[in-house]
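User: Please fill in residues for this 502-position structure.
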């Protein structure tokens, strides 16, 4: 659910008019945010609360109280004292926070987290950050940069417009934003990405039930949505029923892409994975591929037309071989089976006469371009003044495909479906090979009878969540993360979705 700030505020008014007290809702919101923080940082550490005058500061103080109970050391930086203008409820939560006994030991040892919690301003604030609020926002941003702290924003990063997403000068740079009740429209705007970071929705059913004005044409993918689409296997299931995936990938110098795509399909649950490579690189790929992945040499990719597969993935590391172009294009256009089209297969498609509107495939097609590949597909520059969501929507109106538009906030679009926005992942994913794993993963999900739309949205969430888990459980860092490591944690990401983790 994506809403305007005004819709949230009106829903809150209706809830309070119906007799619901504001304090229990603040406790519920703070508890949900604290649980989200504990998901990302299970070990106690050090937390600094940045507290404004309003109820957003009250939410942050509830979070701080729970963190103290869990063994965190928590301090607060206040924009004002209670008698200097703090709301009555925020002042009450400050007193409760100060009454909570401070943990006396060394939280988490040397490996404990260091976090900042932005409770300066809520969604009702507009305009530049002034006075002490501006000073505290500057202090928080400096704390993040100089001490490598992770910043959590409560509901919205202070200084970011909740409707447009435009940040003012000095706005808080959050790593994770905990959006209470519903996702505000500004949080998914392109201008807000670097200030919002990872986006988490904190459920508040009481308020959500009262929201009348919402954008049902878009959704932010969550764990419950993903879990509802993951098939439950029967006890008698066998490999032929869990998806036969054929992959066309790799070329001289780019053999790793074929391996990673096969690995993505394998970790994504495919029952049988066969990677087709040109015979000139067969020995290299066959030696490097996982033992469970079958590798077949070929001199002519058109033979896949008669191969028994439920879904075909093509493009990673494929290179440019003019001798194979006609066979590959014929597959893309005429094969009735679902195809996941990525990388060099997209580039081949973009070099055909006419534009993408001329592409009229015989079966379901999932295209997975990054901005450069989509630019080539559309035959020109992407509009700099257009949101990624709108670019994706315009693309599918021109061509009857499912589009997975890669980026820091991946967008999945298909006609007659809500545009899906993926919130998971982190900057450590800015490394080669992850798109190859994603292509194999999406193919595996389609092979398990997910629609291309559901597979694209589910695959995007899973690979981002896997990258997050690789940091928390894999003793990695954003700099050292690799595509193969992310593939190895896909199983944990499936479990995370089913467990309802954010």
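Assistant: Residues filled in for all 502 positions:
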């Amino acid at each position: 659910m994506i809403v305007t700030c005004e819709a949230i505020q009106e829903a809150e008014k209706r809830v309070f008019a119906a007799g619901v007290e504001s304090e229990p809702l603040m406790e519920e919101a703070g508890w949900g945010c604290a649980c989200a923080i504990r998901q990302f940082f299970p070990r106690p550490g050090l937390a600094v609360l940045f507290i404004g005058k309003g109820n957003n500061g009250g939410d942050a103080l509830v979070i701080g109280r729970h963190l103290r109970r869990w063994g965190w050391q928590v301090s607060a930086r206040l924009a004002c004292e209670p008698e200097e203008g703090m709301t009555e409820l925020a002042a009450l939560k400050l007193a409760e926070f100060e009454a909570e006994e401070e943990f006396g030991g060394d939280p988490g040892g040397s490996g404990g987290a260091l976090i900042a919690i932005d409770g300066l301003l809520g969604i009702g604030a507009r305009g530049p950050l002034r006075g002490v609020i501006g000073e505290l926002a500057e202090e928080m941003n400096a704390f993040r940069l100089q001490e490598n702290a992770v910043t959590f924003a409560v509901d919205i990063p202070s200084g970011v417009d909740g409707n447009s997403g435009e940040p003012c000068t000095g706005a808080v740079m959050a790593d994770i934003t905990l959006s209470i009740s519903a996702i505000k429209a500004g949080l998914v705007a392109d201008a807000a990405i670097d200030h919002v970071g990872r986006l988490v929705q904190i459920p508040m059913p009481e308020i959500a039930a009262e929201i009348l004005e919402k954008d049902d044409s878009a959704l932010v993918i969550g764990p419950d949505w993903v879990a509802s689409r993951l098939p439950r296997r029967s006890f008698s299931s066998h490999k032929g029923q869990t998806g036969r995936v054929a992959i066309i990938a790799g070329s001289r110098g780019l053999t790793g892409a074929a391996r990673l795509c096969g690995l993505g399909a394998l970790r994504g649950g495919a029952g049988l994975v066969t990677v087709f490579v040109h015979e000139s690189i067969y020995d290299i790929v066959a030696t490097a591929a996982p033992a469970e992945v079958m590798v077949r040499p070929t001199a002519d990719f058109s033979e896949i037309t008669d191969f028994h597969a439920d879904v075909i993935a093509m493009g990673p590391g494929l290179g440019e071989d003019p001798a194979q172009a006609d066979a590959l294009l014929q597959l893309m256009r005429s094969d009735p089976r679902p195809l996941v089209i990525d990388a060099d297969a997209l580039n081949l498609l973009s070099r055909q006469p006419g534009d993408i509107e001329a592409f009229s495939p015989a079966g379901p097609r999932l295209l997975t371009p990054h901005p450069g590949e989509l630019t080539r597909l559309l035959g020109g520059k992407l509009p700099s003044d257009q949101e990624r969501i709108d670019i994706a929507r315009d693309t599918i109106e021109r061509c009857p495909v499912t589009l997975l538009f890669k980026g820091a906030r991946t967008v999945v679009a298909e006609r007659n479906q809500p545009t899906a926005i993926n919130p998971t992942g982190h900057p450590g994913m800015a490394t080669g090979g992850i798109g190859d794993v994603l292509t194999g993963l999406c193919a595996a999900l389609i092979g398990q009878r997910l629609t291309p739309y559901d597979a694209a949205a589910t695959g995007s969430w899973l690979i981002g969540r896997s990258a997050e888990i690789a940091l928390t459980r894999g003793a990695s860092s954003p700099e050292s993360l690799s595509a193969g490591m992310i593939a190895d944690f896909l199983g944990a990401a499936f479990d995370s979705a089913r467990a309802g983790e954010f």
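For context: The first helix runs from residue 5 to 17.
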